From TrEMBL:
<dbReference type="Pfam" id="PF21100">
    <property type="entry name" value="WHD_MCM"/>
</dbReference>
<dbReference type="Pfam" id="PF01637">
    <property type="entry name" value="ATPase_2"/>
</dbReference>
<feature type="domain" description="ATPase">
    <location>
        <begin position="15"/>
        <end position="215"/>
    </location>
</feature>
<dbReference type="InterPro" id="IPR048907">
    <property type="entry name" value="WHD_MCM_arc"/>
</dbReference>
<dbReference type="InterPro" id="IPR027417">
    <property type="entry name" value="P-loop_NTPase"/>
</dbReference>
<dbReference type="InterPro" id="IPR011579">
    <property type="entry name" value="ATPase_dom"/>
</dbReference>
<dbReference type="InterPro" id="IPR036388">
    <property type="entry name" value="WH-like_DNA-bd_sf"/>
</dbReference>
<dbReference type="GO" id="GO:0005524">
    <property type="term" value="F:ATP binding"/>
</dbReference>
<feature type="domain" description="MCM C-terminal">
    <location>
        <begin position="277"/>
        <end position="333"/>
    </location>
</feature>
<dbReference type="InterPro" id="IPR036390">
    <property type="entry name" value="WH_DNA-bd_sf"/>
</dbReference>
<protein>
    <submittedName>
        <fullName>ATPase</fullName>
    </submittedName>
</protein>
Length: 346
């Protein structure tokens, strides 16, 4: 048993609690052909999916769509992700034998790099599960994958799992509620991950340190939960570093903040000239427990002059879509305490 490892969990014994969500996921595998796992960054989506698939003992391909971010979002790079995964799994290799391919250093390369080849691959997979982890990254593919998924649901046997941390973007990719969209109205099961409650977060840390044979005080655990809330990815990151010798809280928090800061900066860079408005909105919201629409507007206008409501709505909508802010009772807030502190350093 080891809770404090940084990779996504795969085995039930390393997977802390979240029993309801895990059981829900496993039982949905036999009831639904389409499962959506949602939750902000580091809430444990990938761990839930991998542990659930292993517990259910089903065959699966795991496609990490984040790899598309750095590549040009072409069909070719998407196919490369599939090739790498198929290459790793001997059962999948066997099933695709009838599709033309050659091998380069143990990695399969399909001879024809066309959508019908993708169809052929999925056709051969039977009722295996195909996971599209961080599926919102597929929205920029020129090849319309949502139409393809709809076709697969209608005519093939594969089961589909998608996850996303940029929940608004995932929603826009899937468009279940848009009558014009290929996936409109498809039966699916949504599983939503949430942070651990305070008691569970403390229990997770206590047990994790016990596994590592490291003595810790209740005060330290309290302090950790104060800083990281119930975000299981952060609690794991803290436990991992603390148990491995960095026996002090501040440098660990600092490293976590810098990780998130890099992510936020990347987001702001992709906003181009509008970046400064986004960063001001983030700073305004992070400075308060909860922040109203009019407060964001007031601060932005004080700095940049008049901002039309539609523009502000767009800024806030994008921040929500990317999972940077959340709306609670008509007010905006930053859900992740480390993100909140990172924003102060922008
Ligand atoms: N139930 C769990 N028990 C123990 N550790 C967990 C659990 N869930 C997640 N973790 C740990 O938390 C970290 C984040 O988990 P994971 O990568 O599964 O989350 P995620 O939501 O997919 O994150 P990201 O948004 O970065 O993709 C990892 O270090 C993982 O090992
Ligand atoms: Mg993940």
């Amino acid at each position: 048993m080891a809770y404090f490892t940084l990779e996504p969990k795969r085995r039930r014994e390393d997977f802390y609690d979240m029993e309801d969500e895990l059981n829900d996921f496993v039982s949905s595998l036999s009831k639904f052909r389409f499962i959506v796992v949602r939750g902000l960054r580091r809430y444990g989506k990938t761990s839930l999916i991998l542990t659930g698939l292993n517990a259910a003992d089903v065959k699966y391909l795991f496609l990490d769509c984040r790899l598309l971010r750095s590549a040009t979002s072409s069909f070719d790079s998407f196919l490369s992700i599939i090739e790498a995964e198929v290459s790793k799994k001997s059962w999948a290799r066997r099933l695709i034998r009838n599709i033309d391919y050659f091998e380069v250093g143990g990695v399969i390369k399909f001879k024809f790099r066309r959508p019908d080849v993708l169809l052929g691959i999925f056709e051969n997979l039977g009722d295996a599960v195909v996971v599209f982890d961080e599926a919102q990254e597929l929205r920029n593919l020129k090849f319309k994958l949502d139409g393809f998924l709809a076709y697969a649901l209608d005519h093939l046997d594969i089961r589909i799992v998608v996850s996303g941390s940029e929940v608004g973007l995932l929603h826009k990719f899937l468009r279940f509620e848009d009558p014009e969209a290929p996936l409109y109205g498809r039966p699916h099961k949504t599983i939503e991950l949430r942070p651990l409650m305070r008691e569970a977060a403390l229990d997770f840390l206590r047990r994790g340190f016990e596994q590592e044979g490291v003595d810790v005080s209740d005060d330290l655990l309290d302090e950790a939960v104060k800083n990281f809330n119930g975000v299981i990815g952060w609690l794991t990151y803290f436990g991992y570093n603390y148990a491995r010798g960095l026996r002090s809280m501040d440098p660990i928090i600092d490293a976590a903040i810098n990780m998130v800061l890099a992510e936020v900066k990347h987001f702001l860079e992709t906003r181009g000239l509008g970046g400064s408005r986004y960063s001001e909105a983030l700073k305004t919201i992070s400075a308060m427990e909860r922040c109203s629409w009019s407060e964001v507007k007031r601060r932005l206008e004080a700095k940049f002059g008049r901002i039309p409501d539609a523009t502000l709505a767009n800024i806030l909508r994008n921040l929500m879509d990317y999972g940077l802010i959340v709306k609670v009772d008509d007010e905006y807030t930053i859900a992740d305490p480390i993100l909140r502190r990172a924003i102060k350093r922008i």
